[in-house]
Every structure is written in C-alpha cells, then in structure tokens.
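Q: What changes when LQZAQKY5 is included in the input?
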Amino acid sequence: MTDPIAWDQARETAWAAGYDAKPAPSELPFAEAAGSALAAPLVAVSDLPAFPTSAVDGWAVAGPGPWRIGGKALAGHVPDALGAGAAVKIATGAQVPEGTDGIIRLEHAEVADGVVAGPVAREWREAGEEARHGEELLPAGTPVTPPVIGLAAAAGHLTLPAHGRPKARVVVFGDELLTSGVSGKGRIRDALGPMVPHMLTAAGADAGPSLGPVEDTLEAHVAALREALADADLVCTTGGTMVGPVDHLHAALAEIGAEYVLNTVAVRPGFPMLLARTADGKFVAGLPGNPQSAVIAVVTVVAPLLAGLRGLPLPPLRTVELAEDVPGRGSFTHLALVDPAGRRLAHHGSAMLRGLASAAGFAVVPPGSEAAAGRSVGLATVPGVWQ
Ligand SMILES: Nc1nc2c(c(=O)[nH]1)N[C@H]1C(S)=C(S)[C@@H](COP(=O)(O)OP(=O)(O)OC[C@H]3O[C@@H](n4cnc5c(N)ncnc54)[C@H](O)[C@@H]3O)O[C@H]1N2
Ligand code: MOO
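A: The predicted holo structure follows.
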C-alpha cells in the first residue's frame, strides 16, 4: 500500500481529476444543465422587461384629468395607444399603452359616471430596466442553480451551455449482506446500497439503484465492475478496500487495468478509501465497508470528483463553532461528527450510522492538533443532508 495522502490534498486531487475529465460543454435542456456550471456567459436575448410593464392593478391615464374610461389593458396583449384625457383599466404585468403618463392604483381611484380620478404615478417597470438585449447577465463558471435557470428562462433561453450530468453506479460487495429482513447469524443488512445512491444524486450525478451484493470472489468483483462501468462514468464500490481474506477490490482494479488516482487517505475514520481511473477515463471510487467510513469517502473523494466533472469549483467547507473539545488523531485528520450546535454525537464509531443520522456533518480537526471548545473549524457536509 502507498503512503496515505493528506485529507485536504485528497479532496483537491479528486476534484482536479474530475475537472480534467469533465465532458465537453454542450447546449443542455435546463433539467440536465441544473447542478453544472455555465460554460459560457449568460446573455439576455431581449430587453428585460421586454416592454414597459405595469407593476400594479389600476388605471393607465394620458394627459390631464379627470379621465374618461374606455377599454382595458390586460397581461398578454399589446394595448392600443392612449389619447389625452383617456383611461384604461390595466392589470399588473400588462404592457403599458403608448402615450400613458401615469397609473392610478385601483385602491386610490375614484370612479363615477364613466370617469376616473386619483393620484397618478409612474407605476411601471421600464423596458430594459433589469437588462438590455445582449447584456451579460452572469459570467462563465457560475453554478447553474434554480434561480439561474429562472433568470435564463426570463431572458429568453431554452437551453444552457453546461457539462452533462455524470452517470454513477454503486456496487456493493459482501457475502454477509442481506437486502431484506433483519440482521443475525453472521449476516447484516446492507446499509450502503440503499443510502449511497441518494448521496450521489445530491452531489450532482445521475445515479440508478445499486448493484449487488456481489459475491466475495475475484471473478464476481471483476464482472460486477465491468458491468457497472459499461454504462456509468463513475462506479462507487463499497467494502473490500483492505487486504483481508475476501477483500478483492485492489486485485479487481488491477485486472481491469485501472490506475490509482489516490490510494488511502490520512483521515480517521475512512483511511482505506481509494480513487482509480480506467484506461477509457472512467472512475472507480472504493468506499470502505464500515458505513460511516464509506460516507467519509463520499465527502472526501466522490463529491469533489463529481463537482469537477460538472465544471464546478471544489465544494467549500462550511464552518462550525465547537461546543466541546474534540481530540486530534495524530498525523491524520480527524473527521468528527457534530450536530448543528457543534456538539459531538454519541454512536460515532465508524461501523455506526446512528450518530451520522443526526449530524450536521464532520468537524475537521487537522493533523497534529486538537480542537478546543469555542474554536471555529471546517465542517464537511454530507450530500443530501441540509441541517
Ligand atoms: N488488519 C486490519 N484490519 C482492518 C483495518 C486495518 O487497518 N488493519 N482497517 C479497518 C478499517 S479502518 C476499515 S474502514 C475496514 C475497511 O474494510 P473494507 O473496506 O475492506 O470493508 P469490509 O471488510 O468489506 O467491511 C468492513 C465492515 O463493514 C461492513 N460492511 C461492509 N459493507 C457493508 C454494507 N453495504 N452495509 C453495512 N455494512 C457493511 C462489513 O460487514 C464489515 O463489518 O477494515 C478494517 N479492518
Ligand atoms: O477508517 Mo475505518 O475507515 O475507521 O472505519
């Protein structure tokens, strides 16, 4: 086994491997562009608003009052021009008639005998007030968030230039695993197959249901890897990362000709994680079998890799103020489960999920240090957990 690389270096290495391998940008429907980054600046295809637009329900009037009522200006239509002394009822969002000098809000209007009177104001949004046709709205590299999609639609787009969503597949290894029923007699329920695909989806991948459990033989591992890689850009395996009697992942990677991007990380828990690349540029992330360690591998390697593949920057760490002391782990980074108030959680062993299920994420205690209560430290969040 090679020397483990530092935890922050592992994140950057995985991200850079993804960024280098990101698919060429293409014009994607909004649903496919969501979660990527703009590969070119977003430009307005019309003025925004495209026409003077009433901001209120009221009366559009022209010239000096009082104004004789005739007709309506409704949203979705081009109204006739207004002559001096005329008023039309106008709806919020309607194009303001040419010749309009002001609008009287409905609640301020006095209407009698076909004539309207009241205080007049420029209660509309001018054409081009938000953007001019051809103006750059957002630079290349901006993450395609839901508000960006809304703005792109408002500005006249149907597609966005972005990097397509990577396909990911989880492959679960282990003869001890059950997919239904309860644990006992040496068998345990598979906790990773039902969990990890949702994390991959939340991290920006198109992830189908997991494959497996795959039998603990080298042949079965190789066959499962080949099957999953046939239609995925990223395969996340679980278990078998060590060198125990039935740990076949390393041998299977050698058999399919994959090369390590990184092999073991100086972090506790989660140390035996790995990332490998196949000859045709696909990725295999080896998640350790202990469930919390597998999640740490998702946080450390898989989420940064997926961000890179989508053209996004390395996901930033949040910060958390610790409510109690957290010990270090010598020369390794310690990822310690904490709740949103910075308190450590019970049941935080690497084979456990009970602490993780209530956690805001992992407080990052760097190598060679311990973190005292009151200190602000990095918080590595788990894809799909929004505490
Ligand atoms: N001699 C050593 N043994 C171990 C070391 C070590 O340094 N020296 N490291 C330990 C650490 S740390 C971890 S993490 C595990 C990693 O093991 P593997 O990735 O090879 O995983 P397995 O041996 O297959 O399983 C470990 C553990 O996790 C359970 N498991 C596996 N898959 C699932 C699943 N889908 N759902 C729920 N639980 C799962 C499995 O039953 C084992 O209990 O190695 C340590 N050993
Ligand atoms: O590091 Mo193992 O990954 O502790 O459970």
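Observations recorded in class: Residues 29 and 159 are 4 Å apart (CA to CA).
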